[in-house]
Predict the 3D structure of the following.
Amino acid sequence: MEPMQGCRMIGAVRAFIGIKDCYVVLHSPPGCHSGMMMLEVVQDNSDWRIAVSGMHQRDLVYGAEHKCLLAIKKVYEKFKPSFIVAMDCCSSGILGEDLESVVEQAKKEIDTEIIYFSGAGYHSLAYYGYEEALEELIKFMEQKETTKNSINLIGIKKDDFKAKEDVEEIKRICNNAGVKINAILTYDSFKNIKNAPNAELNVVFGDGVKLAEEMKKTFGIPYVVVDYPYGLNGTLEFLNAMDDFLDVNFEFVRKEKEKINKIVEKVQFYLKGFYGMSCAVVGDYKAIGFAKFLSDEIGFDLDILGISKFYNMENKLRDAKDFVENVVIEDRKKLEDKIMENEIEMLFGSTYEKKIAQDKDIPLIRFSYPVVDELSLTNTPLAGFNGIPTIIERMINEITKA
């Protein structure tokens, strides 16, 4: 069995790096640092907030806790972040470096919030590292005055493909619906995240359920778990889920539908060609919402859904089996074999699926993490109402190239 996702450290870094004034200090050799840097900055070269203590081979024998402390102090001196996370990796974890003591010493020497998080990859996979990293944030949260008709968005990751554009679209939709976004975990400032308990509702996009559960116990905030809002139906489900707890204004939806219809009717004959076409969708929790959109609104025949593990995924997969023939969970080899064996005509996934698409000679539409061979600089989201024409445009352009 070959996992479809990375190690615990990757998940944890993805959670913490979404805090806009946070810096992650990896106590590791430069290799761990450079790998994470590549995944994090390929979409935005201007925002890299990962430092490394620079362990050498001799440090794996004698230890290098002093290097971690020095890296923390240098990061604070240079960047003055509001929040610092000191994290070990496999090598420093095996060595048994006492980073908790390092962090306690750092607290005496620098004036900022700082924590130690165990990121050694042998402990768990990325999804669990992400969940536990988010849970760490609750210790900094303080409930003050509740903001009426407000939500927190949980599970959005800064380094997802088109994350910035998707966040702007979701904000636009919520604003038109009369719903205020209190905080985005984690695509927000540390201050806003500390004020997360002021929201009336937590909306969880697949990942982050453990945090939502803890916030419900600690602060009494209810939560709902929804699919990532792809397509018309997915966006309406997002709005309806909030409406069970808040006062959601649906008046703007009619105009959104009219706008989409005017765009889609321009390519109606192309869309008829997609009806019944066999496809495969590969990704994390977002893949379920994307697959629903392709099946219910475009008319694809969903042959294969390849999905990496996420917390509490069993409940979501029950729905997926209603519209997809083959579900492959966390097994890269089995997934590749299934795609090569079946008559798949289009593939939706990440850069990791590029080789499969080339071998199969079929188009690849990128939507899931990680995308390292395509950039997004224009305001073209994949989520929400405005995401519908973007996805359709990408599909048509890819299929006409073939």
About this structure: The mean pLDDT is 91. The radius of gyration is 22 Å. The longest helix spans residues 384-401. The CA atoms of residues 2 and 332 lie 5 Å apart.
